[in-house]
Amino acid sequence: MSSFFLLSLLFGLAFGQTASLCAPSEYIIHVEKRECTYCLAINTTICAGFCMTRDSNGKKLLLKSALSQNVCTYKELLYQTALIPGCPLHTIPYYSYPVAVSCKCGKCNTDYSDCVHEKVRTNYCTKPQKLCNM
Fold first, then answer.
1. How would you class 22 by CB atoms within 10 Å of its CB: exposed for 0-12, middle for 13-18, buried for 19 or more?
2. How many domains is the chain built from?
3. In this model, does residue 16 exceed pLDDT 50?
4. For the chain, first and last CA: distance in Å?
């Protein structure tokens, strides 16, 4: 085996693994409204994974374009709507949520993403749970 072929194979495997770590991932969202009887567990997909980031200790010496803080974010998404069971007539029982179709490494867009990781974040139900498979 030639050294060029072996080096190309190793480079391809290393780059391919890094590039593929940002992808749609299964996730369960728990949704409840105060007025409704049940909590809805929704199976969906979100973008999750690793993106290459460049940050230098010499930030003052480099141009801003040389520093990149990429996150795994939506390339293509669609919204679906679920019906929360057990809601009284005066309450709107619908909940719309994003479904990741494809993902990319890029800048975080606050129009459709939460770009801040909160330290204390819970995703659970306090009421009886119903499962929604979309």
1. buried
2. 1
3. no
4. 49
